Batch of 2 targets.
Target 1
Amino acid sequence: MRIGILGGTFDPVHNGHLALAYAALEQLKLDRLVFVPACHHPLREKESATIASPESRLEMVRLAIKGEPNFEVADCEIKRRGVSYTVDTLREFRAKYPRPSELFFVTGGDWGKNLDQWKDIQIIFSLAHFIVAKRPGFDTRHLPRSVELLDFVPLDISSTQVREELRTKGFSSLVPKEVLNYVHDHKLYQT
Ligand code: ATP
């Protein structure tokens, strides 16, 4: 089995995440891709905590991937509570999918820059292929040898931008409609 893992805060999940997931599924020839919403992101806690609750972020991913048989969502980081370290998540996936199954941890180009700050990055490299999605003009020379690149033209979308649209206009075309309905029903991102 070839299992992809896409971590993030997904606050909220948007079409850019889905595009990255489809690119990974296709290029890495994955059997399934698992979205793993973080409880608390280790490298983000100080500047910007998440806004929607872990349960809401999990549910929005669930709604966004409904009907796509190769996508799944896992609640392991949310169930662990506290700060979500990728190394712990990959250990859980390894226990669930022993070798010869292959794990592919997929991340957007922005995270490729500060890998030295990740907890136990060498252990992470030993547990899974570490895939960074290339961005146009993205300098790959500084990346560790263990990093593999995914060809991908990212959509110019971020959760920050989606939250801003929702706050100011009450609407965003950058998320699936089921996610937008959830946001409205639960009055998220209004302030
Ligand atoms: P925020 O704006 O709150 O910082 P974000 O849009 O970057 O959020 P995350 O949940 O942090 O979303 O991202 C999860 C993963 O998806 C990360 O690896 C990130 O690099 C990647 N990603 C986010 N937006 C895009 C995009 N538009 N295209 C491709 N990958 C993306």
Target 2
Amino acid sequence: MNTATFAQHSRPRRLRYSPAIRDLVRETTINAKDFILPLFVSEKIKEKVPIESMPGVFQFTLEEVVEQAAAAAADGVRSILLFGIPANKDEKAEQAYAENGIVQRAVRAIKKEVPQLVVITDVCLCEYMSHGHCGIADRERGHILNDESLELLAMTAVSHAAAGADIVAPSDMMDGRVRAIRMELDGAGFENTIIMSYAAKFCSSFYGPFRDAAESAPAFGDRRTYQMDYANAAEALREVALDIEESADIVMVKPGLPYLDILWRVKEAFELPTAVYNVSGEYSMVKAAAQNGWINERETVMETMMAFKRAGADLIVTYWARDVVNWLK
Ligand code: PBG
């Protein structure tokens, strides 16, 4: 064989694949079961309130959030992630772990109405603290008290499990919270409750719109003392390793798109079920561009979801979860 012929034969042939063949050799697939839909339930409202910075996303009343959960399940969504907005905030986040807090009531109602839906709860204190930080604050010194916050986080997780949550998802980033939560859950008889930890959570501008939705913007300072510096990848791996040692069952990387490298490295290094959070800012940017006719929403979203799966995500938390499962049909 002369070299010219060889070159000809070794030319990449993919451009000639027919659609059917392209489908056969596709490496990555996305499935309805991969998607987790975040839902906001508020104790302060009489009917749903649109989040201006997140078109298509709402705060719902208790009754409405149950309907939303049922409708999402009917569409084919398998799991939801619940965030609560309480009527009262204080310096101890009492409504975060109140037996009749808004999330606890919502979990009970959803589990009764849609038992097959996997209910995940966000375990954090920021929505319940008058200052909007994720832990107990020492206002004078302007910082967050890590160890003092652990007990409240663990109480919050146990109250969610008691209400029927299948998975608790600590998003606060206090050190040692996975262990504290695991110990309290086991002690209270919830050995089967799963922990999905926001293991590598970066301090990010992409959370901006979420803070409108969850009414959780910090009143002073920022979250830099407990969320990670976006310049650090090795640190992210150390954070994930710690959470796994503390017995996290599922680890999450957040935000999503700007951190695909982290996602890839986490999946490669640990091979644990790995989730990614396609956060509010990522959502709002695409929505805004789509509303202006500058981008095709559906195609952009599907490409993004494929990118998450390709980078190693097993689970994707996204405000588009319902759209995606419908588009997959
Ligand atoms: C904190 C929490 C945040 C998000 C999820 N849980 C915000 C923050 O850390 O400031 C952000 C999610 C999003 O932007 O979509 N409880």
